[in-house]
Automatic annotation (TrEMBL), chains A, B:
It comes from Jejuia spongiicola. Acts as a magnesium transporter. The keyword Magnesium applies. Its main location: membrane. The chain crosses the membrane at residues 293-310, 322-346, 366-386, 393-415, 427-449. The gene is mgtE. This is Magnesium transporter MgtE. It is a multi-pass membrane protein. The lineage of its organism: Bacteria, Pseudomonadati, Bacteroidota, Flavobacteriia, Flavobacteriales. Residues 147-208, 210-267 form the CBS domain.
Length: 456, 456
């Protein structure tokens, strides 16, 4: 969490990585220190992501644990896992000692069960140990799983002067003081103060006179995404976490929320693209296959569905072969419209700005799809009419295109709303899921309507 | 930016909105005050998003400008625009007086040119006016366009005691003190202090002894997205903004970055779904059409392309009708694979973790696509063989499926990398763009390979 030793210009170059590898090879610890000490731990982490496991471990063991503990938190998850394998429980415990309780708990949670015990048992600072153990008990997706125990707390009965004295001690423990939390003797949160308020106040004032009551807070069991929404909406940089009795348990800071928001966005983006699980472009081919193949298989099944439908209409074929040549167009339009409307709904749900009844939504999307559909259909009609000279066929194809687009829009709107009501992440509705179902339905609708109009 | 007067439980109910509308109708200002004063400005903004323009304006004119100025910053952009139309330049100036310089500048920038002048001329606080005018000059997408002038600044020559005295004054101006910036007499940034450091320090210590040098900073012309990356990477809550001579101009706080990150994520998500421009589900049908139709039109053109290709292969048709029934499957697979691989690259580029040469990327994607393709092709082969009993056709279709998937993967990987090199946002490469081009290419490849294998 340090703001020091870095500026925007850092760039990870081949040369730099090569230089580090060289120094490790030469066991030139002195030079290596000189080189790496210039960098922010987040940058050293980027360098270590590029070297091999032994080299990374070498650096981790070389630098002092104050730096390396921070580096560990910034490493690629899979690389960190492998580095930790190379460290003894005692060595990991030393790293953990240096970390804030929330980061410490996150690292320990990544370890295999049996090692977790061992590492915890090696933590010397008893209070730190107890706090970490407490955090390990909370579900990762709750406020409790995200919060840190580090915070500055004062009692309502204290004076400003007394406060200043007391918090000098506490503040040294806390990387950043956002708010000073004021509690009563039962440790229940009754309000907050900013350091600013304290500095601006007179020394003999009572805290109870300065405290700002009804401060924002979250319950320890609140969902992380809800915490993120609240902090973003109210521009909070820290929020206290209370238990059901309003006892102050910890605090969540905005930098953790920034990470939550980024992960959320990436997850939704990948789901929309038909990728499950948190993979990135540097993962192994096997990991990427596991994330991508299931959705492709869904597409395959959908394609086979489309095949069966078209085969079913084979008889009309010899007369109107042209109909079949437009199936990719129909499928594409059905897919695109479905993805567009579902994406808008999914995003609206994420921002809580989907208001009004489901029916109004569907009516609006129907009008929207109809408008787009008619515009597109006119072009298609003209194209078929001019190139094929068959006005009936042109008419049949265009009319069914409009119908297909409307239905696709309705499905794209309804499915995410339905999933959301059922408590399922609507984001899975975008991408391949919608495309595939709309492909099939669209093609079926298309042939059915065209057949009717052409009276085959 | 206040942390007061709200907690996570706020919920926007029909009843509440109805109650507000009632009180406005009855001109019951006293009750309206009582009701709304309970809420955080961000919640009042949500309420005003739900009432009609006159009602919203009524509330804005009723409440004191300290609250309403914050409400304005939280309103839906289009609603804010309409509300501001109902306010006189003087009234807007009063709102602006209450806002931090960055929010003030944002509001003014949304006004039509001629009104901007008028509003600025009505700002009474001359310093505030000068600072806002300065901010208006910077490009919205740069650090200068995002920064605020409010910050706490001390000179290296001061003592801790002197500092404390001096910053009491400045601090009252600043919503939150993240860092105290230390400058020399030329106003050049030489480092920073935290309030914590100051509190923990002795009164007679010189600032120059406490200052933390090489602090992070950004240049006033740096791109907003780069600023966001730096602040997220280094977990910064505020970063100073310097001009080319390292003179301290302002600071950017994390809550603005949170907004930038959210907007970025939404833009990419929408692009991937074939939606351009910043629209949300509550926008008008016309706005939504403008955002969606162009991509659908692209799909239409692609579909016509597919039609022409299939027509070109019509002669082979009577013998192998079955080939045509699989075109939707081929198109779907080509599209899905393309979107998957492009999404991973786009995301990798956004996170700066696309390393190594383009060739390695393409080779990796080729292997990945080949692996997925073969697995899928085996299923398809068995299906066709079993259901149609034509082993040659089954073989032809499966082999071309593999080829199509590999090419689709390569295009999905190459196009975003290419666009990025050209300085174009690679996000436009996902979604309809890739799907459409892959549809056409896939179908062409499919018929061509199948034809060869079947020796037609």
């Amino acid at each position: 969490m340090s703001e020091e030793k870095e500026n925007i210009q850092f760039e990870l170059t081949k040369e730099l990585v090569g230089q580090v590898k060289q120094l490790i090879k030469a066991n030139d610890d002195k030079e290596l220190h000189k080189l790496l000490d210039e960098f922010h731990y987040a940058d050293i982490a980027e360098i270590l992501d590029e070297v091999n496991l032994d080299e990374a471990t070498y650096v981790i063991k070389l630098l002092d644990s104050e730096t390396t503990s921070d580096i560990l938190t910034e490493l690629d998850e899979d690389i960190r896992e492998r580095v930790l394998k190379n460290l003894s429980a005692k060595e990991i415990a030393e790293e953990v000692e240096e970390l804030d309780t929330d980061d410490a708990a996150d690292i320990i949670l990544e370890l295999p069960e049996e090692r977790q015990e061992a590492v915890i048992s090696h933590i010397e600072d008893q209070e730190h140990k107890a706090e970490i153990t407490e955090l390990l008990a909370y579900d990762e997706d709750t406020a409790g799983g995200l919060m840190a125990k580090e915070l500055v707390k004062v009692y309502e009965t204290w004076t400003v002067a007394g406060c200043m004295r007391r918090i000098r001690g506490q503040a040294e423990e806390v990387t950043r003081v956002h708010s000073i939390y004021v509690v009563n003797k039962e440790e229940k949160l009754i309000g907050r103060l900013s350091l600013k308020d304290l500095i601006v106040a007179k020394n003999d004032q009572k805290i109870s006179d300065l405290v700002k009551v009804n401060v924002d807070y979250v319950n320890v069991n609140d969902d992380v995404e809800d915490v993120a929404k609240v902090m973003a909406k109210y521009d909070l940089e820290a929020i206290p976490v209370l238990d059901d009795n309003e006892v102050l348990l910890g605090r969540i800071t905005i930098d953790d929320i920034v990470d939550v928001l980024k992960e959320e966005a990436e997850k939704d983006y990948q789901l929309a693209a038909g990728i499950t699980g948190d993979v990135d472009s540097d993962d192994s081919i096997l990991e990427l296959t596991r994330a991508r193949l299931p959705w492709l298989f869904l597409g395959l099944v959908g394609g086979i569905g489309a095949f069966l439908i078209m085969e079913g209409f084979q008889d009309t074929f010899n007369k109107y072969a042209v109909l079949f040549f437009f199936t990719p167009l129909i499928a594409a339009m059905a897919g695109n419209v479905g993805v567009q409307s579902s994406a808008i709904i999914v995003q609206g749900l994420a921002n809580d700005d989907v208001k009004g009844s489901v029916n109004n939504r569907l009516i609006k999307e129907m009008l929207l799809a109809a408008l787009n559909g008619v515009i597109l259909a006119v072009f298609l009609f003209l194209f078929v009419w001019v190139t094929k000279g068959e006005i009936n066929t042109a008419f049949a194809i265009s009319v069914s295109l409009v119908a297909v687009i409307i239905v696709a829009g309705l499905i794209g709107t309804f499915v995410p709303l339905f999933l959301d009501k059922r408590g399922i992440d609507p984001a899975i509705a975008t991408g391949p899921f919608i495309t595939t179902s709309n492909d099939i339905l669209g093609i079926l609708l298309y042939f059915w309507i065209a057949k009717m109009i052409l009276g085959i």
